[in-house]
Structure formats: structure tokens, C-alpha cells
Amino acid sequence: MFRMEKHVFNQLYFELVECGLKATKQMEVQEMVAMFLNMVGHGVGNRMIQERFQHSGETVSRHFHKVLVACLNLAFEYIKPQDYRFHHVHTKIQKDRRYWPFFKNAIGAIDGTHIPCVISPSEQPKFIGRKGYPTQNVMAFCDWDMCFIFALLGWEGTAHDVRVFENALTTPTMNFPHPPSGKYYLVDSGYPTPIGYVGPYKCERYHLADFRRSFRFENYNEVFNYYHSSLRCTIERTFGVWKNRFAILRCMPKFKFETQVQIVSATMTIHNFIRKKSETDSEFKRYEDENIDEYENDNHISEDQSLPLTVTSSTEIDLVRDSIRDQIISHM
Question: Record's Gene Ontology CC terms (predicted)?
Fold first, then answer.
């Protein structure tokens, strides 16, 4: 019913209590959390919750926002790297011959996605981008556990993904987890590649669907791109399990936009919570299969050479990429 195991649900409401969620004369904490999870998980509206839980619409709305605030408090604990210095190499890297030791310094992946939003007609032109309907542009960083470690939310659907990326890197108040020296994130071909951000070789095949059509490599750069894409698509699978679990992300209710942004953050928090508390969650198990196609992201950004940027690519990181490519080739 709640799209999580019972023991995980119990741990969640205990931690939400620690984050300030309190029972009222009308409702116990467990019921508040259950209503909230029904709304975000199944995408049901206030009227359906009224019928299911036998409360007034005002009561449902008030307690939904109480749980939402508690989830936002919990986000400070769960949407962050486990270790800001990234001292340890993840077992996903260590145990996969495609990645070890070539990507031992890769600490996560970056990508953008769009979440439908409800906006007043006067504001819609800023939010209707290539999707054809109003969206919130979300940029996220994930680790190799498929957990979100940073997210930049609330940008208009027309905002260029690279602009959102630049804002994260250059705004000190973002508390952005910059890669330590020698470490790096994996990015798609549309992003700039300053030091700490490794992208694929451009003008070569890159996406996994292209390699499935013809697996024979044309050159060594394609070999690197295949391995890079196989690992970087962890962020796409992370988006897949997140969006599949929370139906509200596919059809956002008519909340004010600030609340819609908060819902995105809250669902990311619960996503991470489930990942950390459950080793047998069926949604994560499904998306751990790297051969499934439905998570393939259709939000790949295109290059825009006319976009003025302060974050630019580095020739030093190109040398890092060349070194990784040469290591891969030498082990083939």
C-alpha cells in the first residue's frame, strides 16, 4: 500500500517524529504519514484521501503539509554524500571489471530531468520548454548506490541544463559537494567539463541504445564512451526508480509552485531513506538491472555554443579521460 516494506515505514515515521512531526487530537503520526505516502506514492488527490481515511479536506491538507515540512527537515540528513571526502571506492566500481580500476576515482553521476508542474497562465511561457507542457527543471547528482546526494530544484522548464549546472558550481551558498582533488563526477556530453567532471568523447557514439544496435567499436574513443555511458546511466536508473515509485511526480496537483518544489525534495528524501533502510526493496531491485530499457532518459541536453558560461571545460580533465581510455584499451 505504501510502496515500501513495513519495517521501513515504521522507521520512517519514527524519524519524522524526531524531525518535529507530532500527533494531534485528530490524528496519530502513523496515519499522517500513511496519508502523505498515499498522495505522493499513488498520486491520489485530497478527495480520495478524504474517503479512504474519513477526514475532512481541510484536515487532509493541513496534515499533508505537516508531513511535508518534516520530510524537508529529514532531507538535511539524507540528501548528502555519506563521506564528503569520498575516501572509499564503492563496491559497484570494485566488483565490476568494466569499471575497475579505470573509474576508481569516479564518485557519482550528474544529469537533469523535468517534472510536470502546475503554473498560472501568465507564468507558463517560462516553464514550457521542449516537453511542450510546464515543467520544473531538476538537476541531480547521485552516488553508485542510486541515492541522490545533491539536487538543484525549482528552475523553469525553459532553463538550459548547463545554466543550472553552472549555478550549482558557482554559488557558494548551495553547499554543493565539490569533488575532492583527483576525484570526479561523470557527466553527459552536453555539459562543460571543468576539473572534476569527466564527459565522453564528442562526435562519437555514446548512448547505450546506439551500441545495442551495433556493438562493434569503430575506434578507441567509442570504447571509452561505452564504459562511461554504462556507469553514468546510474543517474538515469535512479531517476527511473524515483519517478516510478512516486506517481505525484508524473501528475503534480495544483499546489503553489513552492510546494511543488518541496514535494520533489521530499520524495527524493524518502527515496534515499528506503534505499538506506531496505536491502530487498522491489523497486530498486528492478532498476538495478542495467539491461532494462525503460529507464533510458529522453532528456539528453544539446550543446549550445552560444550560451555564455563562466564554467568552462578544462584540457587537464581531457588528459584524465585519455588516461582512462588508454587503461581500458590496455586491459582489453
Answer: nucleus
Report how many domains make up the chain. 2
Residue from 130, 128, 108, 107 nearest 117 by CA: 128
- The confidence score (pLDDT) of residue 215 equals 78
> How crowded is residue 219: how many other Cβ atoms within 10 Å of its Cβ?
11
Place of cell 563562466: 310
7 and 130 co-located in one domain: no
Per-residue pLDDT, 263: 98
User: Are 47 and 57 contacting, i.e. CB atoms less than 8 angstroms apart?
Assistant: yes
Q: How far apart are CA 249 and CA 245, in angstroms?
A: 9
Whole-number Å distance between alpha carbons of 233 and 60:
38
Closest C-alpha among 23, 34, 29 to residue 270:
34
Among 224, 249, 240, 225, residue whose Cα is nearest residue 288: 240
> Is 204 a residue whose pLDDT tops 60?
yes
The residues near 273 (Cβ < 8 Å, ≥ 6 apart) are: 8, 11, 12, 15, 74, 78
Could you tell me the sign of the dihedral formed by the alpha carbons of 209, 215, 218, 223, in that order? positive
